[in-house]
Amino acid sequence: MILMIVIGFAGYSQKLRLNAYGNYVFNDGVESYSSSTSYFNGTIQGGFLWGAGLEIRVKEYYGAELMYFRQDTKAPVQYYDYNLNRARNSTFDMGINWIMIGGARSLRASEKVEPYGGLMLGAAIIDAKNEDNQNSNSVTKFAWGLRLGTNIWASEVVGLKLQAMLLSAVQGAGGSLYFGTGGAGAGVSTYSTMLQFVIGGGLTFKFGAHSNTGH
User: N or C: which end of the chain has fewer CB within 10 A?
Assistant: First the structure.
């Protein structure tokens, strides 16, 4: 459905941009009850987040972008079982895929500098594997994000992108990704949210009609 929307925009849009991203994600603490008697807390470790996006400039100062981001990381976790009255530590291999569509509102700072910001909505596909027993699972969650950045145009068609983002995969009562004694799994839990702060940038390439102002 998202792809059809992007193709529909491209049918009448005169400006397309291809964006390549390289970012750093900071550590994010997570905690929740995986059952009424099992509690876990841990850290999704920071690391490299790469991605790409196709941006449609609907108007001079407004755009819509379809984005994909990928992070491979580890999550050391400690979980406690009240029935057994004991704690246990494990480490999980994680792959986090973000598929987002977002708006971008640009400002005219100068011919070379183009600040922007916007809201993103989409999905996070999270894969987790327990290193101890090799159990694995994958879940898909609603995701949202915010971003603020600027494009610095080296020419009319190539620019440097500087950007900060906040990405969140929402987990709620009724189902979540949890870490437990049997490995990663899907099950009922109390509300928790994965919240990742990202800084970085990349390159932006302009296609189609463009003006001398860099917009």
Answer: N
